[in-house]
Queue: 2 jobs
Job 1
Amino acid sequence: MTARIIVLLRFCYDFVVGDDWRVALGVAAALAMTYGISTTSIPAWWIVPAAVAILLPVSLWRGTRL
Amino acid sequence: MGSGALFVAVFLACLAEAVEALTIVLAAGAGRDWRSAITGAGTAVAVLALLVAALGPALTAIPLATLRLVVGGLLLIFGLQWLRKAILRAGGLKARHDETAIYRTELAAAQAAPTESRGSLAHAADWYSFTVSFKGVLLEGLEVAFIAVTFGANQRNIPLAAAAAVAAVVLVTGAGIAVRAPLARVPENSMKFAVGIMLTSFGLFWGAEGAGASWPGGDAALLMVVPAVALFALALVAALRLITKGRHAPASTPAGRP
């Protein structure tokens, strides 16, 4: 039973997080930062695109090294 | 742009995954038993349809801002994964999907596996074919079902997303029946590249909006976001190709030496 739960959890992790956990973490951090900044008068729309502009090349760079 | 983009994104995602699932079903059917392979694939499609039918209405009940935050974030993570793999493939740093090679491997595995029947499953004469087909279709389809449900829920148009998914499955199934071979000529890698761009663009747009950001120009900003993501991805492909070329170039010989 425990083994099946572990298999299910591992599948869920692979399904959602995928090959590079740093990308998932980066997206979550960018959304949290957007939420935080959107409560101020500063525009917050640029944070997620900026995160993508950093996360994707970094993830690719790591992918080419592995 | 909304409905058209929704249809195209779900259709292409479903088409790409259906081509992969078809290869598995064809190998299980040709290598072992057609009836069991088709029963397995049909059962998996029924499970996926139930999942969409159950999750769809549940998701539309969630407030739009919360839905966009959660779903946007997940779509963005999915999109970046699809895009990462597609860029690595286009840049020559990851093997491209070769349905013919995958078919040969799956066929050899199916023919080598021992025969085993389960009496409890009335329609499945061969357990291996049933299981391989079921797992193949379910796993390939799960992500697409999620994309269809989340895209549809965000646009408040799940029927259109479901129609796009069904259209892709019908097209691939029809082509599979006609050709009776893996659909190796389908530009799978290009389709995945396009889906990655769509998922990333919509994910970042909805995610930021759900987190409270206001896009300049409102929904019209998507008309800038999609091409911007596409250009960025193409620039990364060009950069990777340069790196690959540099790696494979012969080492320069110092002047004066042979």
Job 2
Amino acid sequence: MSKLRWTTQFMVLAIANLGFIQVLKTGIPCPFFYCYACPAAAFACPIGVFQNYAILQQVPFYAIGVVGVFGLALGRFWCGWACPFGLVQDLVSRLRGRRSQDLVRLPRVAWTKFAVLVLAIFLAWIALDTLFCKICPAGSLFAAIPQRFVSTEFSFGTFFYVHLATLAVVLVLFVLVGRFWCRFLCPMGAVLGLFNPVSILKVRVDFDKCNHCEECLSVCPAKIEKLEDIQSCTDCTRCGRCMESCQNDAIKISASLKR
Amino acid sequence: MKAHSLLFIRLILLLAFIGLVAGFVMSQYEDVRSMVITICVSCIGLGG
């Protein structure tokens, strides 16, 4: 499953960059965290869209609808299997070598990413500017740095260096704490996390088979603390490591309209 | 959550979101596309 997840993540990264062909630059908000200021971006970043509509003092009904459909279908599966910024975090985590445990162990805190989401939209509405974009580390990596190489006529502004600083900080944090951005700061993860309890695709635990060894919790990158929370908590990215670790085959990722 | 209530919630949400997309795609799709095409250079700290 691990190989399949890597393959999917790289494939989505390639698809997200199909915008190098101009006609493939679409107005579809993507269900993952990828900057639409990237020279080759094919989709719109929903957080960027929400901020722009906040500046216009309008409601982004179309973007809410698209993200809602994506979220309702798969929840945070997008974070674990598709997000290019999640892929970056997974790649950086490999610098720890064979150590799967975080170098710094932090408890699960669910509310911080929701605070980032609310703050990003509120600040755009108040300041009439996309302030979150100006410090976004995904924007640094996928847009600011590549754009500078593609278009050399641009000069460096203050926020270019702010971008580099935020990127450097989060890269260090990714080495220390696995999926730090997803766990604590990602506003897109907050949006998709709201759908985890009702999404059609879910991680389902068969408690008749479970012997409560809690091996699944010990390998969980989202640091979920209770077996009951696996199925519906806002932090689960459906990465499937719990499923792989379960000796009793009690955990499945499956789709169902009724359950 | 009981199976039938979860099914009901999912169907209501799905209809609501599809309704939003269908209702606003004509008026907002091009706005969103223009955000992808017109790169916000100030957002990423680059200047002209």
